[in-house]
Amino acid sequence: MPSWHVQVQFHLVTFLCPRTEDRLRQDQVGLTLHVIPIHKGGDRSLVTNYRPVSLTSVVCKQMEHVKTSYLRQVWNKSDWLYEGQHGFSSGYSCESQVITVGQDIADSLDNGDRIDAIIIDFSKAFDLVLHGRLLTKIANSEVDCRVVVWIRKFLLGRTQRVRVGEHLSEEVRATSGVPQGSVLGLLLFLAYVNDISMNIESIIRLFADDCVIYRKMIKKEDIEKLQKDLDRLGE
After folding, report:
1. Consecutive H or E run containing 95
2. What secondary structure letter does DSSP report for 33?
3. Closest C-alpha to 5, from 57, 70, 52, 66
4. How many CB atoms lie within 10 A of CB 51?
5. CA separation for the pair 56, 29 (Å, rounded)
6. Model confidence over 180-189: pLDDT tens digits?
């Protein structure tokens, strides 16, 4: 990406941030989300079988698109995003994750090595994102401070209510998590789990919150190291 393109995007972001912020304060539409439950399958009477999709206002979505484009350009330029993350990144997909893991396993088997792998699905991962920790990570990623302030107000000032047909629940404040179904939410989640491989000796590949961790079992100590890595992921 040419440097001038990043500069243009930066000036557009800093120009729009205060104006969109003023508009959101005027009508509060952008900060109140309507959550639509989307059935994933199974028993429709179970709440756990629904995925919450958040609907933001048109004004908010426009700004989310600008911020998302800016963040991707900054992080791609600095190679900040974890290379083992295959979710929602240009050139990566669920298929690329499967191919990479499959190739690693095939290479080990060809060499006569045993390999142990554990597949992990973090429960309610998008809902449990801690806002303070997320904002600290973004602030340390060479992103302009004014963009960080906008994201902070987008997350901390957010309220939500569930809509089923024509019925609306009471409005509640969202104290954690990123809005699923929003333009920016997925990228914010990638930023939150970006340091997942820190202090981990085994190999980790992800597709958003779906994780596989594996290691060659050459020595007896490798079993203990893999277990230690699993314990670190659970901390």
Report:
1. helix 94-110
2. E
3. 70
4. 13
5. 8
6. 888 999 999 9
